[in-house]
Predict the 3D structure of the following.
Amino acid sequence: MHELSICRSIAGVVNRHAAGRPVRVVHVRIGHLRQVVPDTLAYCWSLVVEDTPLAGAELRVESVPARIRCEDCGRTETLEAPVLRCGGCDGTRVSILAGEEFLITSLELAEA
Amino acid sequence: MGRFHRHDDNDHGHGHGHDHEHGHGHDHGNAPGGRFGDVIGDHSGYETGTERVTVLERIFGENERTAEANRADFDAAGVTVVNLMSSPGAGKTTLLRETLRRLHDRHRIGIIEGDIETSLDADRLEGFGAAIALVNTGDGFGGECHLDAPMVRSALPRLPLKELDLVIIENVGNLVCPAEFVVGEHARAMVFSITEGEEKPLKYPVMFRTADLVLVNKIDLLPYLDFDLGAFYANLRAVNPKAITLEVSAKTGQGLDAWCSWLTTVTGRSPGAV
């Protein structure tokens, strides 16, 4: 349940950027390699913001598939499972192009 | 609310690796008048009376800053820190006890012990001259599932860092959460027990990916289990081709000399170590 910790961290950053203005939507970008469960995240968000000024703010998750590039054959591919192995040559010398994102990208604030 | 948003155009190569805003697909009709197609960047007017503010801040930025402060303190004191992680029951505490038994006359060792409510694990480590700081994580929502950098920082005043060579952090038993939280450690080791099943690296890739060393524990049980060691290594290599692996039994002592050698090696490499 580290989704609770994630939501507390998100709330801390959001409060700092919102500076007291009402927050309607919080956009986050999370890569598939982060092992975050979106439904759990949404549930934990509702717990964490309950009875705070962020109550009612929606958390929208942009989920980023994992992509790798093989250092041996140069092939790039999108992963269905977190197996860091080239689907072309079976090599394991791969670099991760996407999927490790863990960002708060933007907020939608009500006009003051 | 909080929908699992995915692009439905199967164009995974589009736009994910960089920072422009995705103007499309977020509304799905729930914001009347809010459909702006592929507008990129400025979302003012996205919804009446709403201003879009770009943040682009790492979710665990604060934890990472505290981890850096911990790391600076460790380096200044010349102490090497190993973050030891596993699922519950994999044998971390028994392994630590046997490690202290073998190393306590060679190294000055500190332990940071993460435990949800009790001091049971810390009690089992008494008697080997190690400095032990217990971090109970039981506040908040019934117990944290991991140690984070601020929790580790709170334990530091209770350890004589300057007098120590090595600090081992016994993280909370959990295969998911501790992997996401850097605490300022120099190396990550994980204890995997062969009673857990060979598919675990594929189910918990975040943890297995971040380990510098994986101890394959309870190896003395191999004759009694249907555990496929070759399949386990293949699964581990799929998510982490670089990890060092050692087969050990904290109970019989098999492999523990190799583990202690590894600890001694990383301790010797510590920046600032004498």
User: Anything to note?
Assistant: The beta strands of chain B are 4-5, 50-58, 80-86, 109-115, 131-136, 166-170, 187-193, 213-217, 244-247. The first helix of chain B runs from residue 61 to 77. Chain B touches chain A through 53 residues (CB under 8 Å).
